[in-house]
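pasting for the record
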Amino acid sequence: DPLSYSGIQENLISSITLVASNNWNEFYCYHFDGSEAIDQCLTHYFSYSKPDSETKPPKRSIFCACPTRPTAITERIEQLFDDIEDCYFHNKAKGKEDKGRIEYKNRENKDSDTGLNKPRQLNSQNKRYIFESANAFHLMYWQDGNPIVTQTHSEKSLLVNLGNPDAAGPIVIDRFALTHHPLNTISRTLESVRSDSTTAHSRERSPDNTIRVFYEVNGKQANTYLIDHQQALSISIIPFESTRAFILPLSRFIEQSVLRQFTSSQSVDLSSTLEDDKATSSSVLQTHYPVGQPDIEFYALQKTKTGYSTTPVPTESNISANYLAIKAIGTQSSLGDIKWVIYCGDSKFDSSILGENLFIEVARSIQKHRKPGQTAYRCYITDIDIGGNYNEMASLSHDLHYKLQLEQELNQAFLSLNR
């Protein structure tokens, strides 16, 4: 890879000059130097178009002037531009004949005026493209209609950025990036699943209603990668006691979260919707909220000599077995802070009354439901429902983020009671 060449991982591109001409035969010249040259060139070039517009990226020709490996460098940059264009402008690149295909990456948010109270919708601009150079990991995404490329200098920093629930979205990994990381294996697995699904169904098939969880056990923790039915990725580190204790509470929580988002969208009063818009509204609900409980698939990740392998892990049918219902209801203010009310069985615990003692009191209630000697295993939040401004961008990624935060506080309080 000329962007990370040989054993010393040298970036062979020291500078890029971009020459642009328009229909009036005017020419503009831009020059980019240093480790951010490729980032600046990409953002400048792709700013001429937007994924959700009808404008295609301008035609391009790429040349390299250097005494060594000019062909390899040219081909690599051509591949990078082609792959990014295919990622964000697939519908335009392939032509009008593909517009009937139901794929997440080609969906557009057509329902902004229907008044539906639902989680934010993902479109082409929510996708994140990852490529690698000798200097850093590069993360490309779109914000307010503009392309942005950021750099991180370690895998850990990259995963922190990808795991941010506010930026949850599908990822596309460059052919030379993260070759020995679980995300590369996950990406290939998802591509295989989508390819099989496309072959098995017609272009008019219903959206995929499957949520996939990939996890790698690392001691007492599981590095967890959750992909929802819209291919949005969320990354978490979840305490791991056993396969059953990991899968059952998480499966139950996922079902509750998806069901709540679906019923929330269905509960909206559509009586004021114009007669001509009724079919459109129905189609929107069907597209973004597949009817019925989601199919949840778990895959265990195992490290191999060449990367990672995946093994499907069967789930039990009775996922609610013997787990005490602990539901957290939050209200988010305009400042972003959340006030929690936690229901444990038939008991109610309000943070506005209990303050810092909230989790201690919930832990005491949980302790009363357990038999002597059953203090070792973890406490699990089984459902979360947050009102206020949170509703505007609610997603499974956000719910899981807050679930893990609350569980950490709750289990710390529980342990303090049993020392």
